[in-house]
Amino acid sequence: PPFPIRLRGPVQRGFGRGGKDLGCPTANLPDESITPISTVAKTGVYYGYAQVIPPKDGESRLRSEDTKVFPMVMSLGWNPFYKNERLTAEIHIMHEFQSDFYGLEMRAVVLGYIRPELDYISREALIDDINTDKRVALNSLNRPEYQKFARDPHFELES
Ligand code: ADP
Ligand code: MG
């Protein structure tokens, strides 16, 4: 696929599959906003950068450090909730947030593919793999050619 792929949309509630309990919350993008990737990319795990945009007027419980650009891993997969007829993109941002950010705009620049979706015998096996994915993502993003994407014009950057 033609990386970088730029995505944006308000963060949607998922179906509480326990991401938070296992230390790996994943923020969901709405269907309409994943078209740029679902039409070109295969299912599996990707890496890149993501940012949560604070609301222009309203209150937000996020701290200013929560709205920086961070490395992320993204899972693109068929959603069992919709009988596997719909794709979903779920993004884990590599940062400890002060609070949830449902409803806020999330922007992402997807830079590469890590691996296909696998079937896991347990949630723990899945989490093990996610930890590997995070290391792969951080290693890849360390390359100088990728670091410029943390300052991509798609993001809101401090002046
Ligand atoms: P859901 O099923 O609603 O997606 P999760 O357990 O996957 O529930 O939690 C996702 C939510 O957690 C996100 O929508 C966001 O509001 C919050 N969140 C907190 N920290 C993170 C993070 N580091 N990455 C992604 N989402 C996070
Ligand atoms: Mg989730």
Automatic annotation (TrEMBL):
Pathway: Cofactor biosynthesis; FMN biosynthesis; FMN from riboflavin (ATP route): step 1/1
Top-tier EC class: transferase
EC nos: 2.7.1.26
Residue span(s) of domain Riboflavin kinase: 1-142
GO molecular function, one term: riboflavin kinase activity
GO CC aspect terms: mitochondrion
UniProt keyword terms in alphabetical order: ATP-binding, Flavoprotein, FMN, Kinase, Nucleotide-binding, Transferase
GO BP terms in the entry: FMN biosynthetic process; riboflavin biosynthetic process
Known role: Catalyzes the phosphorylation of riboflavin (vitamin B2) to form flavin mononucleotide (FMN) coenzyme.
Family: Belongs to the flavokinase family.
Name of the molecule in the record: Riboflavin kinase
Lineage of producing organism: Eukaryota, Fungi, Dikarya, Basidiomycota, Agaricomycotina
